[in-house]
Every structure is written in C-alpha cells, then in structure tokens.
C-alpha cells in the first residue's frame, strides 16, 4: 500500500470520527446525564468521543486491511471492544461499582455478572473470534490453535490496557499513537493510519477536557491495536508484546499509572503536552 493510500486511511478515519462526533452532539441534548461523567478535575465531560472514535477506527480499518480475512478480524475485534465497552459505560450501576479486572473476575467467580464482567466475557469472546478468523493456518492443528489463543489473548488484553490509560486527557490517544507507529512498516502497517486519523480528530475535544473515550472508545482502540500486532508481527514479538501487556495490567492493580507518570519527568511532560496547565488540576 503506497503513501497515498495510507494518507487516505488517515483521512477516512479522521473524517468518520469528526462526522459522528458532530452528529451525536447535535442529536443529544447538552449535558445529557446518560452520556456525562465527571473527570479528574471534578468537571462534567461527555462520553460521545467513544462511539465517534470507534466508528472512525472501523472505517479506517476497513480501508486499510490488506485482505478480506484481516478486514473481518479487525472489524470483529474493534466493534466487539466498542459494543461491550459502551454497555459498561451506559449501563453500569454506579452504586455498586466494581473496579479493575480483578474485581470483575472476582464478581464472576461469585456468580455475579456486572457490566464489567459482561465486558470481560464479551471482549474475550470477540477477540478469540477475530483471532480465529484472521490467523493464517500454518503447520498442524495444535500449532494453529496455539496461535489463535495467543492472538486472541493479545487482542483482549490490548483492549483492556488502553482502557487503563484513559484516566487523563489525551493519555490513551497519545499512548496508542506511540504504540502503532513502530508497526506502520509491517503487514498490517496501514492500520496505523486508522489509529492516527481517529486520534487526530478526537484530540481537540479530549485534550480540551470536553470529551473522553470512555470504555467504548478505549476498548475499541486497544482491540484494534492488539489485532494489528496479532496479525502483523512474528510469533516471538507477539509473545513479548503479550508479556509486556500482561505485566502492565498486573502492575495496574497495585500501582497507579498516574503516580508513576507524575514522578517521571519525560513521561510527565509527554502526558501534559496539549493539556490545560497542571496547576489547574484539583485532583492530581
């Protein structure tokens, strides 16, 4: 895929994201309680960015995929992440909110199906389905099934990791851009255009603290990134990526990413780039 086609993917993703965000904003009344949350400053912020980014990612991925099987896998993973994330965004019972992957899995173990637990099961299922569709058959049955399991786990954990980063304005978008850029030269490289296009369109509202990705947008973005790695990287790289994602996920149960970023000069500067001044933060 040439440079023009890659730029087209960026443009398609950005245009779809911007169009859906504009239409959603016009269709829903300002301050709609169902779509409004409170951000880290204690200020109201809308979740409309999430569905807009998800649509932009789907449009860009459809244009970027090198073949029909990869396209089907990308769309399955991304729409699954968006749909189940959006259910958690809109239907979660705030009075009995369960936090973190451990909390959701613990609730499931006790027979309680929270919206977060439904998201874990749903994204896990769609991730495995995407892996089964998109993973090429190489070698024997056992080797193929192992590849599918590896790829499905990578997609699902990728969806969760980006969601863990959606705690400050622009953080998840910046991290996703940094993660997708090294993959731009590979087989699924054009998918980077979808990530960058949606991110560029969503960044002004996100950094301006008017919009947030929410679970719907963050899970869609992470699932797409996970699929890009799963279907475009050698097995050794996929295992390393999975180890890194799992390590960060486990660390998040014990350590605050925000606290680590605040203590690390380079990360703090990158995290704060484009945001309102840090001195205005009331809940750092």
Structural category is mainly alpha
For the largest beta-sheet, the strand count, sense and barrel status come to: 2 strands, antiparallel
In order across it, which strands form the biggest sheet? 1-2
Number of strands: 2
| Oligomeric form | single chain
Can you tell me the residue ranges where pLDDT is under 50 for at least 5 consecutive residues? 280-284
Rg, rounded, reads 18 Å
Given the structure, what is the number of helices? 12
Q: What letter string, H or E per element, gives the SSE order?
A: HEEHHHHHHHHHHH
Count of folded domains: 1
First-last Cα distance: 43 Å
Mean pLDDT value: 90
Strand content: under 5%
Structure explained in plain terms:
With 284 residues, the chain is an all-alpha fold. It has one domain (3-280). The chain has helices at residues 3-27, 49-64, 68-91, 100-109, 115-134, 141-165, 171-180, 191-207, 214-232, 235-252, 257-263, 265-272; strands at 36-38, 44-46. A two-stranded antiparallel sheet has the order 1-2. A hairpin with a 5-residue loop joins strand 1 and strand 2. Helix 5 (115-134) packs parallel to helix 9 (214-232). The longest helix is centred in the first third of the chain and has 25 residues, at 3-27. The radius of gyration is 18 Å and the shape is globular. Mean pLDDT is 90; it is low at 280-284.
């Amino acid at each position: 895929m040439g440079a023009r086609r890659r730029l087209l993917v960026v443009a398609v993703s950005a245009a779809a994201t911007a169009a859906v965000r504009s239409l959603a904003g016009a269709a829903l009344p300002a301050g709609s309680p169902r779509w409004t949350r409170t951000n880290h400053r204690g200020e109201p912020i809308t979740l409309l960015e999430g569905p807009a980014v998800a649509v932009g990612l789907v449009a860009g991925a459809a244009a970027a995929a090198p073949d029909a099987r990869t396209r089907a896998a990308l769309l399955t993973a991304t729409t699954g992440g968006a749909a189940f994330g959006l259910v958690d965004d809109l239907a979660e019972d705030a009075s009995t909110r369960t936090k973190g992957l451990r909390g959701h899995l613990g609730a499931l173990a006790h027979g309680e199906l929270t919206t977060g637990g439904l998201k874990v099961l749903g994204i896990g299922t769609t991730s495995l389905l995407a892996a089964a569709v998109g993973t090429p058959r190489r070698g024997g049955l056992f080797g193929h099934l192992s590849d599918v399991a590896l790829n499905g786990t990578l997609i699902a954990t990728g969806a969760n990791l980006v969601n863990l980063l959606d705690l400050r304005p622009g953080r998840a978008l910046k991290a996703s851009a940094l993660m997708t850029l090294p993959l731009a030269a590979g087989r699924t490289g054009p998918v980077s255009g979808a990530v960058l296009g949606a991110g560029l369109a969503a960044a002004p509202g996100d950094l301006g603290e008017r919009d947030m990705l929410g679970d719907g947008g963050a899970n869609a973005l992470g699932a797409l990134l996970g699929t890009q790695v799963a279907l475009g990287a050698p097995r050794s790289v996929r295992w390393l990526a999975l180890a890194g994602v799992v390590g960060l996920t486990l660390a998040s149960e014990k350590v605050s990413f925000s606290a680590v970023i605040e203590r690390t000069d380079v990360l703090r500067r990158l995290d704060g780039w484009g945001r309102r001044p840090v001195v205005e933060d009331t809940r750092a």
